[in-house]
Amino acid sequence: MKTLHLVFTWLLLGAYCLPVAAQEINTQQLEAKLKNLKNTAEKVDVLNKLAEEYKNQKALDKGENYAKQAISLAKKLNYTLGLAEAYHQQGAIMANHKKFQEARKYFQQALTLFQQKNAALKTAILLNKIGGVYYYLKEFDQAIQYIAASSQKYDSLKLYKDAVQLKAYVGIVYAEKGDYPNALKYYNEAVASYQKNNQKVEEANILVNIAVIYLQQKKLDKSTETLKRSLQLFETLKMVPQQGNVAERIADNYLSLKDYEQTAQYLQKALTAYEASNQKEPTLRACKRLAAVYYNQQKYVQAVEMSQKLVTSLEAAKDEKRLLTEWTNLGILYRITEKYDKALEYYKKSLELRKKLNDKSAVAAIMVNIGEAYALKKNMGESIKAYSQSLKMREELKDTTGVVAVLGQFAILYNSIKEHRKVGGILEKAYKIRKIQLKNGQFSMEKMLELMHDLSNAYYKADKFEKVYFYENELLKIHQQRKDETNIAQTLLNLGVCSERLKRNSEAIDYYEKAQQKFTKLGLKDASAKVLYNSGTLYRNMKNDLMAIEKFKKSLAIREEMQQKEAIKIIADEIGHLYRVREQYKEALVYFKKADDYVENPENEKKILQSMLICHFNLGQNEEALKITDELIQLDPKNPDFYNKKGLILNKMKKYKEAVKTFSQATKSGEITYNFNRAWAYLQMNDYPKAIADYDTCLIVVQNSADLYAYRGFAYTKNKQLDKAKADLEKTSSLEIGNSFIYLSWVAYYLAKQEKEKALEYLKKANKFKLNGTEKDILQTDEMFASIRKTKAYKDLIKK
C-alpha cells in the first residue's frame, strides 16, 4: 500500500507552475529584457527568474546556465539577496537532477545569506527545502529538524496554513523513519488544524496517511475506520478519483482479514469511481481484483463477469501482453462454471497468441489447460492429444519440471477412467525424473514421499502388488533413515496388506505383528486396532479360527475403549460368526448380542438377529428363538422367510397349529419351500390330505425331486393309500438320493403292509446317511416305527 506523500514537490518544481504556453511567453519576455540590461542588480534578478522559468520547463541545462551567470554577477556586484536567490535556484536545479548533496550545499549557502538579510519568508522556504534534501538523502533526523524549523518560521509570519502543512510533512518523515507514534502526533495536529480551518481536502488526504500508520501498527480496525472517514470527505467534496483510491485501500484492509464480502463491496465502489473519472488502468486493476475476490468467494458467475469486462477492455486496447494471461484466466473461470466450450474458446485465443510470440513454454502450458477442458467434456481423445503435444514440447525444451506437471495431468485423466495401471506407469516416469531432481536438490523429500505414496496407491488399485511391494519397501527404507516411527508403522501395515494380496501369508503376518508393536508403542490406538483386525481377517481366511478370534478380540477391546460403535458392531459380528462356524453357539451369542447393542441400520440388525436365531435354534432355546423371529417380522412384516423361520421353530416346539398358520403367511409369496415345511406340520397334526396337497403343489414346480416323492409317499402311507405310496417311492429309485428319509418312507410302507423283514432291510440301507433332526425325531416318536425300536438295525441307526 502506498503512502500519500504530499511533501517536497516544492523542492523539485518550485512553488507553483504556470501553463507551458505562459511559461514560454514569460521566458521570451525575460530574454528580451535581459539584452537591454547592464550589469546591475536588476540583471541578476532577471537571470534568477530565467533560471527558475527554465527549471519549471525542465530545461535544466538552460536554467543552470542562467543561475551560474546570476551567481557570478551577484558576487561582482556584492548583491547579497540576488546571490542568495541564485544559490536557491541552482540548488533547486541540482535537486531536479537528483544531485541532492550539491543541492544541499547551494540551499545552505542561500539560507545563510537570506538569514543575514532577515528575509523571513525566503528563510522559511529554504529551511523546508533543505529538510526535503535530507529526506531524499534518508537523513531523517536532519530532515525533521529543518522542516520543523520551517514550520515555526511560517507560524511566526502568521502563515498558519503553511505552518500546519509542514507539520504534516514532519509526520511523513517520521513515518518513513518508522517512528509511528511521532508520525501520528504530527498528523493529528495537522488534522485538528484542517478541521478548525474547514480544509476538507487536506483533512481527507492526511487521514489516508494516518490510516497507513495504523496499518503499519497492525491496527486494522483503526486503519479502516480512518479510511472510511477519508472516503466520506471525498464523497462530500465530490472528488471522484480520490474516492476510488481510498475505497480500494479499504478493500485491501478487508482482504487482509479475508473478509471477501466487504472486500468486494469496496472494490465495486472503487470500480464505479474509476469508471466515472475515466481512469483506465485503475478500472482494469479493479476488474481483475474483483474477479479474484469473487473467485475466492466461489461466486464464479460474478468472477466471470468481471474477468470478461477486463478482457473486453484489453481486446479493445489490443493489449496482447496482458491478454495472454487474462484470456487464460477467463478460460479457467468458464471451466469452473462448467462452460467448457467457452473455456476452450479463450484457451485457444491464448494459444494462438503464444504461437505468434513463438513462446514454446507458454504454448506447452496452455495445452495442459486445453487438455483438461476436453477431459471434462469427456472427449478423451482430444484431451490425450493436447497433453501429448504439451509433453512433447516440454521434452524438447528439456523442461523436466514441466514434463512432470504434464505427466500429473495424464495421471489425473487416466485415474478418472480407472485406468490405474496406466496411472502407475505415468507416475513411474515422473518418479524417475524426480529422483534426479531430488539428488540435485531441486525437489523436496516430502514431495517425493507423496509421489511414491501415489505410485503405490495407483498400482494397488491396478492389482499390481509386486510393484506396490517394491515402492512400499522403498518408502520403508526412507522412513527408517529418517527415524519416522509413525510412517514406519504405517508402511509395515501396507506391506502386510500387499503380502496378503500376494498370498504370502506368513510374511503378511510378520509385517502385521511388527506394525502392531510399533503402533502400540506410539500409542496410536486406532491404527493398532486396524492392524489387529487385518491380522484376524488373514487368520480367518487361513482357516485358523482360534488365532482369528484372538486378534479380533484384541481389536474389539481397543474399539470399545475408544467407543467406536460401528467398528464394535462389525468386529463383534465377525467373532460371533467364527464361534458359530465352530458350533460354539453360546460363545457366538455373546458377541452377536454385543453387535446387536450397537447396530443402527435396520438391514444390519436383521442380519445379526438371524445369526442369533441360528444359535438359539441349535442350542434348543426355542422360546428365545421365537422372540427373535417376532422381532424380525416386526422389522420386516413382508418378508416370507421370517414367517417360515418362525414356523420351523413352532414345529420344533410341536406347536403345529401355530406353525401351520405361520407357514400359511409365508406361502403367499409363492415359494414352494414354505409349502413343503407346512406339509410336515400337517403330517404331525394327522391332516394327511392337506399335507399331500402341499406336496402336490411342490411337485408341480419340481418334478424330479426324490425327497418330495419320499415325503408324499410317507404321507400316502400314513393316509393308508399304499398303492400311491408305493408309486411315489418307486419313482425315487431313478433319482439321486441324498438323505435317509427315502429309506425311512420305505420302512413305513412295509411296516404298514406288515412286512417287517422288508422294513428292516430298508432300515439298514438308511445307515448310509447320518440322520437329521427331523428323521431322528420321527423314528423315535411316530407310533408307526414302534415295532422295530428294539432291533439292532434301529439302535445302530439312532446311535450314528
Model description:
By secondary structure, this protein is mostly helical. Helices cover 81% and strands 0% of the residues. It is rod-shaped, with a radius of gyration of 50 Å. The model is unreliable at 1-21 (pLDDT under 50).
Q: Supply the number of helical segments.
A: 42
Shape: rod-shaped
CATH class of the domain at 1-197: Mainly Alpha
Can you give the helix content as a percent range? over 70%
Largest sheet: none
Strands, total number: 0
Contiguous runs where pLDDT drops below 50 for at least 5 residues: 1-21
What fraction strand? under 5%
Please name the CATH architecture of the domain at 1-197.
Alpha Horseshoe
What's the structural blueprint in terms of helices and strands?
Blueprint: H1 9-13, H2 20-35, H3 41-56, H4 60-77, H5 80-96, H6 100-116, H7 120-136, H8 140-156, H9 160-177, H10 180-196, H11 200-216, H12 220-237, H13 240-256, H14 260-276, H15 280-296, H16 300-316, H17 320-336, H18 340-356, H19 360-376, H20 380-396, H21 400-416, H22 420-439, H23 445-461, H24 465-481, H25 485-501, H26 505-522, H27 525-541, H28 545-561, H29 565-581, H30 585-598, H31 602-618, H32 622-635, H33 640-652, H34 656-667, H35 672-684, H36 688-701, H37 706-718, H38 722-731, H39 741-752, H40 756-765, H41 773-781, H42 792-799
